[in-house]
Specification:
This protein is α+β, with helices and mostly antiparallel strands and 134 residues long. It contains four helices and eight strands. The strands form two sheets. The protein has a five-stranded antiparallel β-sheet with strand order 1-8-3-5-6, with helices on one face. The chain has a three-stranded antiparallel β-sheet with strand order 2-7-4.
Length: 134
Amino acid sequence: MIVKSYSLKINTNKSFEIIDITSQINNLIDIDEGIISIFSKHSTSAIVVNENESGLLNDLEFTLDNLIDDKFSYKHDKIDNNAKSHLKSFLLSSSESLPIKNSKLDLGTWQSVFFIELDGPRSGRTVTLTMVGE
């Protein structure tokens, strides 16, 4: 069994931004078959798998903004004024575990891996990749 670990550093430019990191991950995979854990080390970001279609990505932002609206008063805002970002992160996920086959992510035809920034812009966001396999 082989265990490998790498980090991706991601800089974001907007308060909400969806970044396809599939190719960056595939470039770092150096095992033939196994499992990869993709984990964002930030509580105001997310890792998701879905289709990279611009309308769908816009719909995600629209949906999150309408579920967690500015019309509400959030208690966490008394601390650092980013409750909306944290709440959106609760609805998504900080990690994904995916199969590796032939030294690449074994995704469905339309699937991509995304880093979602919920509290940007930020520099030096860290995504940890841990691979287990052969």
